[in-house]
User: Fold this.
Amino acid sequence: HWQDPRIVFMPVNAAEARKLGGKIYRASPTPFKFQDAVLVGATENYYGECRFEIDTTTPGYVKLDRNVLKGLFGKFNPSRGDFVFSKNGDLLGIMANSTYCLMLNNFGSSATFEFSSDTRSQRTGTTLSRLYSTVLQMPLKLQ
Assistant:
């Protein structure tokens, strides 16, 4: 993602998603409209209700209000990579760390790679180093 290189997108069509066992979710056209949300663990089996608040020092992100966490299934411990949905099922964002969620209102990229057998020609090491530097320059609360 152009704003946070830790968020990686890979384009797939509906047939590829089915083959991979994935599901396509609709991105919310108005992600900042929702304060209450459902957080779903990306790697652990948990989900629960939560609330987010706008932090004016972190444009494009919302802050998880840890005072309003209601685990509905599993050990509820929000972490990086978890998905955040509106209560009507639209995808709002992805947790960048355990506190901040990157709102997905665009899908611009800061770098792209083509999956092939020859990745050296794409100078992936240089690009990954640049992206890592981008993360290190972010405010500490977003790292």
